[in-house]
Amino acid sequence: MSLLAVRGLRVSFAGGRVPALLGVDLTVRHGQTVAVVGESGSGKTTLARTVLGLLPSSARVLGGSVEFGGRNLLALGERGMRAVRGRSISLVPQDPTAALNPVVPVGAQVAEVLRVHGLASRRDARRRAVELLEVAGFPDAGVRARQYPHELSGGMRQRVLIAAALAGRPDLIVADEPTSALDPTVQRQVLDHLTELTRSSGTALVLITHDLGIAAERAEHVVVMADGEVVEEGPPARVLDAPDHPRTRRLVADAPSLNSTRLNSTLLGPSSAIGETLLDVQGLTKVFTSSRFGAARKRITAVADVAFTVARGETLALVGESGAGKSTVARLLVRLEDATAGRILFDGADLAALRGEELRRFRRRVQLVFQDPFTCLDPRYTAFDLIAEPLRAFGLDASPARVHELAEQVALPVGLLSRRPGELSGGQCQRVAIARAVAPGPDLLVCDEPASSLDISVQAQVLRLLVDLQASLGLSLVFISHDLAVVRQVADRVAVLQAGRIVETGPADQVLTAPDHPHTRALLSAVPHLPRREPA
């Protein structure tokens, strides 16, 4: 008997004018792991939120049923769903920043799940919250439990959501891109725990992901969605190794791999020239002071004595676990944070000494693509206005034709330019953020996990875009990512961070195929692999 049975589900937005799901069927048995894959906008997240009763007010269920344990969830109403959510069905949402309360310590937010459902007293809830954070991969979980979301990296915030989802030991976990912000080692730890939970307690898992390697390794059944419909489903060995549908074949073809080679530009031939040094980082150190009211403050060293160079036309990838200091380095490079010690020289100028018009020119020449697009896009603006804003700010061409050109470069349909961020998927929002960064024509692009929220096909388009821009404009890239398969496609050199320090650096081919440091080897061994058929 199935635990979850979705039949003929039809959902639309904007009063029925924008269809999202077109008769979707989905069956999940007790203890089964089902992976739902597909491009951004295919309907994966809408499906998840319909099951949880979390659709926005602009959405309408036009038909179908969602039966869970013999009950039609669509008939329960909000009051009935409150007893189901968190206890019988848990959600790990895609966007940790939007899902966490910014003014409540993360440990208290995990403990809240236990208390709301009467699973623990106030004291026991606090203790069990720390245990759950440890299970989700937090080092020093007792200290982290007292911190607020803004004090954690994107990967750490995602682990808080995973800990909260595990709290009630639910019958079904719906995980919407639960590991997209996690490094390979923590990703493996979290997925191992979810797998063990399904085996030991019969908990089922619906794993919504754009990582086909995870789907291949973790799922017993794979469902491929496209344009609001299920186009193919079956065992991973058949669907991903011998796909029938053209959309599935395209997903598999676009999936990155550690066996890939660096992408070559389609514009200027097989390679782009690497010139003199553009960025020179010397002894970079950043120390933060934790916010702990009523107690002694703790100094946290996020970056320690980091040094590297980036040449014109070169891509340097910074890789490492969540919390290793990658995002802190990114913020220091664009002067959103000031260094505690060390120097950053950009085109020979000391970044710390820039003021006034010199600083303004620097802001145009160095652009940052943030890890989380929802926090950097003004929710009141349309996508068109968001892309046009930096053009207007620097006195550049902000005509509709130029905005449309930028949208097309990042594979954002022009028809979506009238929508606001809340009306776009996570991948679509990230494409808007990338278009904003590219718009002023920078010399250096600092990309902080730019592809983590993108589906495979769009990810391939964005990586191609970055490589082509680099070739045609002599653009330099600092590419921060936990996805080593993606890094393999774009990086000339790789620097590996561990606990705020660089432990290994060198050419990408060397570091990613024959690493010297044990930490680099551990990162590589944890990368999920997509099986490939041998050529006939």
Write up what this structure looks like:
It is a single chain. Helix content is 37%, strand content 25%. α4 packs parallel to α7 (154-167). The protein is globular, with a radius of gyration of 23 Å. The mean pLDDT is 87.
Quick overview:
With 536 residues, the chain is an alpha/beta fold. Helices cover 37% and strands 25% of the residues. A six-stranded mixed beta sheet has the order 6-7-8-3-9-10, with helices on both faces. It has a six-stranded mixed beta sheet with strand order 16-17-18-13-19-20, sandwiched between helices.
Task: Write the topology of this structure.
Elements lengths: L1 E12 L4 E12 L3 E6 L5 H9 L6 E10 L2 E2 L4 H8 L4 E4 L3 H4 L6 H11 L5 H14 L5 H4 L9 H14 L4 E5 L7 H18 L2 E5 L3 H7 L2 E6 L2 E6 L1 H4 L6 H9 L22 E13 L9 E13 L3 E6 L5 H8 L7 E6 L2 E2 L5 H10 E4 L3 H4 L6 H11 L6 H10 L16 H13 L5 E5 L7 H18 L2 E5 L3 H7 L2 E6 L2 E7 H6 L4 H8 L11
Helix pairs in contact: 4-5, 4-7, 5-7, 11-18, 15-17
